[in-house]
Structure formats: structure tokens, C-alpha cells
Known about the structure:
The chain is of the alpha+beta class. It has 3 helices and 25 strands. It folds into 4 domains: 3-82; 101-191, Immunoglobulins (Immunoglobulin-like, Sandwich), CATH 2.60.40.10; 206-322, Sandwich (Immunoglobulin-like), CATH 2.60.40.290; 332-414, no CATH class.
Amino acid sequence: xxxxxxxSIKSHFSNVLSHYNNLKKKFVDSSSELESLNIQLxxxxxxMNNLTMESSIIYFxxxxxxxxxxxxxxxxxxxxxENPPVDPNPDPEPExxxxxxxxxxxxxxxxxxxxxxxxxxxxxxxxxxxxYNLKTSVRNVIEQxxxxxxxxxxxxxxxxxxxxxxxxxxYSYTGANSLExxxxxxxxxxxxxxxxxxxxxxxxxxxxxxxxxxxxGTGFSADLELISHTTENFGGNWELSFDSPVSSLxxxxxxxxxxxxxxxxxxxxxxxxxxxxxxxxxxxxxxxGINGNGSPFDNKVASNATLNGQPVTLIINGxxxxxxxxxxPEPNPDPETPKVSFPDRLPILGSTEVGTIYLNGDESxxxxxxxxxxxxxxxxxxxxVNGFKSSLKPVELTRRSSMLNVNIAVAILP
Length: 414
């Protein structure tokens, strides 16, 4: 026993009760049979009101049997009372013309389903109602709707997900001796998966993402992410600039200043003087917890962003504010060989005893030789791969002319 079965038997009872009331109106001088039937209907109504999902199956079938008995009594009494005196030349009994249903049409729009019955023929007005059951492709009922005007479209309230759907229509009508039903299936309607259109890529040299994590009054906290689309090795020598209404930005690892209407951001330095954030070829970095003052965070918090003077794509809280198309990365001609490139000039950053060497590669280990413009073989070198400091194997330094050859084997790529 389920909800639909209870709804169906209650709907059946409503039709029987309606038929009884119509019969009672016809015969003001009710016979003792009608009075007895009235008592049975009162008893049945009380039982029907007590029928719930918690009722036992025995109680359910008891109610169902009592309903069937009452229904038979009503129709038998109807025939008995309305049976006219025997006419020696009776007119032929009028033919019972049953209703016919042409089709049940299901359509979908905006993730909702609408159903309507088409080409209905009901010459004798026998149709009383139609119950529509909206089902999934595996015939699980999602929603049920009932109407007394089948030719009027009915829209279900359920928001549909991707998949196939069908409607089962149950038409109730008055037959020759009892209430009858016709069941028809609709066509199958399909809700397609939402197609997520990726944001247009950019032909700019990089993408700058600004994402707010907290806002207050005229201030906010945000994260900044910079993604390079070029093989150029910026290292720590990068400068972000964009128009902004904010008065100031602050975060302990970066330097931020306002020049006219432009906000300028560069990397701060660690204890050794090396930059906190390095941008290698096709590399990226993220700066978390930047505090802004003087303006709330919205899609107007930045515009016309550049990296070292060149335009970049700007994305604020997932919305693209500016940019073009991103070129596909150059394929590695030999996937078995690590792709390694070294810049022509390697900057010596911070103190004279610290050098910075940049590598980029796609494998878990790369090997290369770099000429370092430094003559002190006791210098300490920080090795960066794709903008991240990397652990490495021992470095071998050999002198050749006024340059040092550094053979570096990087053990782990981030």
C-alpha cells in the first residue's frame, strides 16, 4: 500500500458519493433502502477518514470491500428505481457510448513538465476526471495531478533533472453499471544535461584572478592568483597593475602602492632578500589574505589589468572582466624527453652570496647545465622550477673562464 493507492481509493469514494447524492436528489421520497444506504455511507466515510499510511493492510482491504459493496448497492438501486413499468412496446435502450482518448502529449520547458489530453471524444459526457502521474524513465512516480478538464494543459511543480520522463494518464468515467477507468501513456520527454560553457580563454600573456573571501563596509579580504600563459621567465621581476577605486591593499608578502588611479603590486622579499613569489614559464602563484580598504569588493574593484605593462585577462569572483583567448600550450615534440629550458640571463637577487636559477620541466626529474654570471663558487643557489623552490641533488660547480658551470639535477617537481 502506498500514497497513490490511498489517493486512488479516496478518489473512487468521492465519485461513488457524488453518484449517490445525484440519485438522492432524484427521489425525494426516499425508500427504506436509501435510508439504509445512507447509514452505510456514513460508516464508510468514517472509515475512509481514518485510512492513512499507518493503517494496516487488513483495514485497507476491509474499507475497499465495503466500498465495493456500497457501490454495487447504489447502482443496483439506481437501476431498480429508474426501471419504468413494463411497456408492451418498449423503446430500445439507448446505446452506451464510451469516451475515447486520442493522445496524451508531454512537453518540457525550463525544467518543468506540461501535459495535455488531445482528441477526446465523450459524446455522452461520461468522463469525470483524469489523474496524471509524472514518472521517470524507470517508472518512479515524481508527482501526481488531477483535473476535471483533460483538454486544459496541466503543468507539474517538480523541477526536473536530466533524464527521460513519461506521464501515465488515468481517465475515470461512468460506465454502463459502474465507474470505469482508461489508462494511457504519453510520449517520452527528455531533459538534457546542462551544458556548462567554459569561459572564453585569453590571448593575453597571463590571467589574474581576484576572489573575495570576506567583505565589510568599504573593505574586504581577497585572494589573488596569477597564471602565466607564456614561456617567458618572469622570476620575481613581475609587476601587476590595474585601475581600482580602493585606496590601499596590504599583505605581508607583497608590496602594493597606489599611483594615481593605478594599483601596483610587486613581490616582497623573504629573509634572504629573494622574492616571495616567482613566476616561471607557464607558472602561477597565489597570494591569500589581501586586505583592501576604501571600496567594497565587486566586479568594479579592478579593471585594465597588466603584467609588466602587457594586458592580462582579469577574472573577478569567477566573472571575466577583460581578456582575449588563451593559446594552446606548445606540445612537447618528444614526450619521452623532459622539456627543459634555461633563460639566457640568470638574475642574481638579494645579497651577493645568493643566486637564483630558474628551470621548467614536465617530468619528475630534469637535468641541465647553466652558466651562472658569478665568480664565487661558494655562493648558495636557490633553485626554482616553474616558479616554486625545489629540492635538488648536489650541485657541481666548475670554473670555465669567468663563468661557473652549474650541473643541476632537480629531484622533485612540484
